[in-house]
């Protein structure tokens, strides 16, 4: 009997070879030898069979259950309707013409025809082991001129047939026809079934500030999938999504902005903040799991929101939100079951006293704009009311950037020189958790989110006479691209003509972030949606990214067509080349851990295990005299702007460590919610939740070792 509670399925990496012909590699690795720690990527789009595709929206997902990330791209073709194209990641033997050990082979798909504003994501909605499709429709129902009818005409899901094709769309009852612009997928009530959180935009864009309210569709099932809208007033489980201080739902947003806000991104987060104090006894993990949170990212200079899920057990009073930082009131403790989950009527608004890109609520516009308006009325603007002094938030990246055990945020914002100082800019917002024991010995945990000036990634000209700058930050993600144990920032910017592009900020040893884009091989102006995966199964993280020339001048576009790009990370390849040529290995970190998590629905966990928390402790410099470092990851999977989706994996850089201790917290209500794995060696491993079956510790994968 193996002593550890887990069941592993180790993966051998696909055979890997240098990705370009010898002449190209020589140039790359000479550079690597000179700048040992520099990140490098190769544009492998053509070699991988993805050349000449124009698209802004795309994602990775495993559609055929081979644990290889497949590519789904919304292709834009002149004179034709957009269409979804599916490319299966297929192993191949490298040859003289193409050194890649894989290729994306196009697969006939029966996915719906996309329309403007739609989102398409993929997850195992029915827990049968196959990846299903979920599509949201952007329905501008109040538009004066009706759009052509869509088929299907509603948000819904398409169950997988098991061969990367799908059944007909099923539209859940109760979905509000709305300008749905974002979707998150996760298990909100931790019952082992995936739920959908829909982010909606304006009710009538350009005519008013009103917006549709967002919807949370919670799954229940006997034999078939059923979705319940927990955001409807009067729902016992939800207590309705009312905002404190609002007499009714709906109505004009000013001055308290208590109704819907135009949402461009939504996320379902686990262990996002401490659970808050209990009225009767200290919170302990063996009593109930940490509650999920809903993150709402809003446009139109409106504040973002965080919604808290409240949890109950029969012998405990309801969890309350921390006084001061949160708004809260007790919910009905009279519950019929031993415990159950419910939403409270409480929320935390991302305002200056909690989380925000800045504390400026002046709403003023620049003096130069006011002067210009005297001769050009188009620029005349009144000072904004406080509810419109926030940001145009599109996306969020979530990760523990300082390895202190709690999750931090990076918010992407679109802002302009003319918008004034109260328009939020893209920011790292760092969580600071404090633990204090009171006179009775109970531990009080509280968190604050701080904006640290030294973490700024602003690209604003220093010359104040430059008044036409923009920051069009659309998507972001945190990942350890160089395996040094520190998360880096990938920022995708577009839609404006002043050098908006894909940028990579490498985290430095002092915790700051340096823009290293010009030296990485990444070159994508007008950058759009990003999706991350280990495409070639070599242990480092690769990038798929869309492109648009929206708002670029004819001169800027001349001779170019926007195209999808696949960038393959060369961190592992550089290490292998140094071993082959017997060059010094110092400074070229190569080890990493890639975990594919498989939940067990019979034990109350979704098959995709979205929401799992993984803590990896390792000696990153392989020096017994220095302390080990614990890195914390969360499997978010689907969430952010426009249904941002990456390969469902946990990736952790190990530096020079030769093994790591892994703790997995599975997203579920009860039972054995954690798995401990000591001494796990670098490589790519599938870990399923059948912890009561014996197994052996996986052997190291030689493709990731020195």
Any overview of this molecule?
The chain is mainly β. It has one domain (7-579). It is 5% helix and 32% strand. The protein is built from four helices and 36 strands. It has helices at residues 22-34, 367-373, 554-557, 571-581; strands spanning 7-11, 41-43, 58-61, 70-75, 83-91, 102-107, 119-123, 132-136, 156-158, 180-186, 195-200, 215-221, 225-229, 263-269, 293-298, 304-311, 341-350, 393-399, 408-416, 427-437, 443-450, 470-479, 488-493, 502-507, 513-515, 527-533, 542-547, 565-569, 591-598, 613-618, 629-634, 640-641, 650-655, 660-665, 674-680, 683-688. Strands 18, 19, 20, 21, 22, 23, 24 and 25 form an eight-stranded antiparallel β-sheet that branches. Strands 17-16-15-14-32 form a five-stranded antiparallel β-sheet, with no helix packed on it. It is globular, with a radius of gyration of 25 Å. The two termini are 31 Å apart. Residues 1-36, 233-252, 275-287, 311-353 and 692-706 have low confidence and may be disordered.
> Low-confidence parts lasting 5 or more residues at pLDDT below 50?
1-36, 233-252, 275-287, 311-353, 692-706
What does the main sheet amount to? 8 strands, antiparallel
Shape: globular
Tally of discrete structural domains: 1
Structural class: mainly beta
Total strand count, please?
Answer: 36
The whole-angstrom Rg is 25 Å
Estimate the mean pLDDT confidence.
82
Strand fraction band? 25-35%
Number of helices: 4
How far apart, in Å, are the first and last alpha carbons?
31 Å
What portion of residues is helical? under 10%
